[in-house]
Structure formats: C-alpha cells, structure tokens
C-alpha cells in the first residue's frame, strides 16, 4: 500500500454513490489518508489505482482511510473484499 502515501487524484467510468464520474474526478483527496471517508477510498481505488470494479467492495466493507491504512491486509483484500486477481492484489498492496 505504498501508493497510498502519495495518492491524491485520478479518473474512472461509472459513478460512486450515485455521483457522476465528472464530479468524482474533481474530488480532492485529503493529504492525510486517515481523514479519507469511504467515498475518498472509492475514488482512490477507481481512479488512482484504476480498479473501479472494486468500488462496491470497498463501500460494502465501509473502508475509510484509517481502516485502509491500519487494518486492510492481503488477507482482508482476498477473503473479505474479494480481490481474487493476483496482479490487482499486488497493485493495491503497492507491488
């Protein structure tokens, strides 16, 4: 999750919590990841990580920035959030 330290912007298709992509793209991620809400994490996974297929997984898991930094492990990604693709898993974990 090294990429979390520098994440701050991006782009995706679809919508997050009913918000159009154009609005999501303009969403500014707080520099302090512990201040991220679930919506920020969804924007990060969809836009910065370019993995929008997992947006709902992170929303359903109520993954905010604090949880993402301190509690999301490889085991959580695979067994709770359903990240089955090894390359996606490595990308999220920061390689």
Helix-strand layout with pairing:
Layout lengths: L14 E2 L2 E2 H5 L12 H11 L6 H6 L4 H6 L3 H6 L6 H8 L2
Antiparallel strand pairs: 1-2
Q: Could you write a compact summary of the structure shown?
A:
The chain has 95 residues and is mainly alpha-helical.
User: What gyration radius follows from the Cα positions, in whole Å?
Assistant: 12 Å
The secondary-structure element order is EEHHHHHH
Annotation, overall tally of beta strands: 2
Question: Superfamily at the CATH H level?
Answer: Transcription Factor, Ets-1
* Broad shape: globular
Query: For this structure, what is the CATH class?
Result: Mainly Alpha
How confident is the prediction overall: mean pLDDT?
A: 83
Enter the CATH topology name.
DNA polymerase, domain 1
Beta-strand share of residues: under 5%
Quickly count the helices. Answer: 6
Give the helix level as a range of percent. 40-55%
How many angstroms separate the termini? 8 Å
- Kindly name the structural category: mainly alpha
CATH 2nd-level architecture = Orthogonal Bundle
Q: Strand order within the widest sheet?
A: 1-2
Largest sheet: 2 strands, antiparallel
Unreliable residue stretches: 3-13
Overall number of structural domains: 1
